[in-house]
Amino acid sequence: VQLQASGGGLVQAGGSLRLSCAASGRTFRSYAMGWFRQAPGKEREFVAAIDWSGGSTYYADSVKGRFTISRDGAKNTVYLQMNSLKPEDTAVYYCAAGRFGRASMTLEEYDYWGQGTLVTVSS
Asked: Residue-wise over 101-121: b if at least 16 C-beta within 10 A, else e?
């Protein structure tokens, strides 16, 4: 599985962005998908996850109510809609795919990673 993340950019606080992660491979529909982020000088952290069916989602407390993860099986793509962005959301955002199929907040449970897309939120 190859993952290609896109959609990052510079936005003012309070604004919105939608990240996309396009996946190759016919097995995409059976994979759980997650978004993680890494700010400069910090550890990579969980943001959001969705199970293989799209029926279960999890969010980090810091983004709950502002971010929404979704997936489109026909397009082999997972999205992260980010609203009400804050300067502390500034980071490189990575998408990941897990063969286990269920949504997970645990970085080590994901098997494939995209290259990351930079989100910068100005105050």
From this structure: eebbeeeebbebbbebbebeb
- Phi, psi for 108 (deg, rounded to 5): -70, -15
32-47 pLDDT, tens digit per residue, is: 999 999 999 999 999 9
The answer to whether 72 touches 60, Cβ cutoff 8 Å, is no
For residues 20 and 71, give the distance between their C-alpha atoms in angstroms, rounded to a whole number.
9
Q: How far apart are the first and last CA of the chain?
A: 37
Q: Which residue has the tokens 């599985």?
A: 1
Backbone angles phi, psi at 73, to 5 degrees: -65, -35
